[in-house]
Amino acid sequence: MTTRFDGSRDVRRATARLARRLPEPLEDLAWISYNYLWSWTPRGEDLFRLIDDHRFTMAGENPVRFLSNLPERDLLRASTSPEILEVLAGVARTMEAELARPTTAVLDGGPVAFFCAEFGVHQSLPVYSGGLGVLAGDYLKETSDQALDVVGMGLLYRRGYVHQRMDLTGWQHEYWLEANTGQLPAARVRGANGLPIKVRVPIWDGDLVAHVWRVNVGRTPLYLLDAELPENSPLERWVTARLYEGSHDVRLAQYALLGIGGVRALDAMGITPGLVHLNEGHPALASLEIASRLPREDGTRDERLDAVRERFAFTTHTPVPAGNETYTPDEFFSVLGHTIDSMGLSREQVSAVSRIDPTSLDEPLGFSPLAIRSSRSTNGVSARHGEVARDMWQPLFPGTSAADVPITSVTNGVHLPTWMSPTMRGLLDGFLGPDWERHANDPAMWAHVDEIADVDLWAARTAMRQRLIDMVRSRTVVDRLARGEDVDFAASAESAFDPAYLTIGFARRLATYKRLDLLFHDTERLATIIDHEQGAQFVIAGKAHPNDDGAKTVARNVFTLNRSLDLPNTVVFLEDYDMTVAPTLVAGCDVWLNLPRPPMEASGTSGMKAAMNGCLNLSVLDGWWSEGYNGQNGWAIDGTTLEDPAAQDERDATALYDLLEHEVRPTFFARDANGIPVAWIAMIRASLRSLAPTYSTARMLADYRQRIYRPTR
Fold first, then answer.
1. Is 420 helix (H, G, I), strand (E, B) or coil?
2. pLDDT tens digits for range 3-47
3. What pLDDT, in 10s, does the model give residues 491-511?
4. pTM for the structure as a whole
5. Residue 599, preceding bond cis, omega within 30 degrees?
6. What would be the CATH architecture of the domain defined by 112-412+703-709?
7. Mind giving me the DSSP string for 123-168?
């Protein structure tokens, strides 16, 4: 049996170092801090905020950084606080019990290795940009909750993803912050000789060297490759500098390190996966690495590539061309030619399997065709996306109709303990039974929401909205001051948003197909909806990719049009949207907007998170909402496509305003004698009953286990 050097002992050593600076009553804080399980354990976050709320916030909610920098006098004070010690004991007991459960094998041959370019586990680990990464983080948390044998593999981006700052005109500017790895809840993995494990991948004309870091996500380890090493050149070190780097060459190097280096890292740690799950096409080169290891006598290069198919599953997340990057042969082989040659593979064969038409010499190379050809199964992330993907990739299967293309779908879900507000969780605890979160995909359990009194459900929603309003006010003041707005105008945000108003949210990655500008299609009509005795208020957030000037222009138009409305404190743009802001936003809004141009929304998960908190969706029938909407649990805009985009925008904007004016706002403000919106509360119950059990990661992972991971015999 191969000895594993999987980083578990290295995390224990890091934990011991932190424990040595803590007073004895607080020593459990060390191991808690090195496992992100605390972030979804009840009262886990409260534990650190009780010690020092302000410093914990300033530490980026990173408990290792927080405790490492906390003055000794404050540690001593905390060690004598009965309240802190009681909460610490409770969190420690819960986490110990969770980590002590036996592991369940998914496959006989070893763990599922989940490869992804980004992981949104927590805001203090900034190796994510948006939906793909947050989905990957939620997946790891759910595998921990279900005690499954799974490992994650990604890259440690020292500068993470872009941070956003808007100027006075509303134009987005970007900046990056470098992480201090010495204060991350992560440990460098060491081998038998006590030295850090090194992974080598031939890239450009040399060997890029990477170390491996382990992050504990509950019971599930996440491994991150890091090229910031002195033996690498400055260019090579830049490979793990920034997520989704603008340079094609650097991104190619990143994907080679992720795919090839990820397989080699698992091998170096003594981990043999039973299946490699490629989450999007970025890590597809992992299939070539495994194919190159097959003995020559096992067949030709073609046959060896075919032989690896049983070891891979592929999830495609987007029908948008930017999500399926392609490269000219010159671009591809200037970075990866040395890589391919070193694996003993033919450049011609690699080119063929990376093109839609393998016989074309002019077609660019892409990782999605390679991933599809290298995997035993391919799935989209909603039923409609499965249809779109079958049509998109039908040319890979000549002679096969689009309906018969072997691409299925597993609709995304969200990790309920992460995204449900403590307020909502506390309310449901009294009605859904003990340990209810372990049965989140049981529809019969969710029927009990009908037992919650209207007044109690409305009180919970009101509390969540108030928390959002408090956040909007404080962040808006700071955002305005930072971009140089007038002091009086900045201070006016302290009274922004009315707790009694209908609060509508639109927050996601800014891309032109998301159609944020649809909201401002008719500013006069929008102003009527806002400036009304029974008014509405909008909170908007999102980042554009640094190279996407079209999306930046959309954001700038929001600022321009908002000023023309002269209602600056009822339409607010929150800067630098990330996992710090998102939980309060999805919980506090009354309505969640999604306005994609169909069929370009593969799934979308922000609306699922909102639904878990009793926020109602108003969305185009695309992605997950085309299967989630049932007529009683929210509102829908026609998802059919028109040949003329301008005509479609006109149709959809009119539908949006009609719904807001004639259905959404009247239902929200129709109150009984006790001030309760009875019809609105009924829709919240319908939403929870129909959406909560279906759109959780508990259901999603059950689908993967039953339909994708099961052995094909």
1. coil
2. 679 999 999 999 999 999 999 999 999 999 999 999 999 999 999
3. 998 988 889 999 999 998 888
4. 0.95
5. yes
6. 3-Layer(aba) Sandwich (3.40)
7. TTS-B--SHHHHHHHHHHHHHHHTTB-EEEEEE--TT-SPEEEE-T
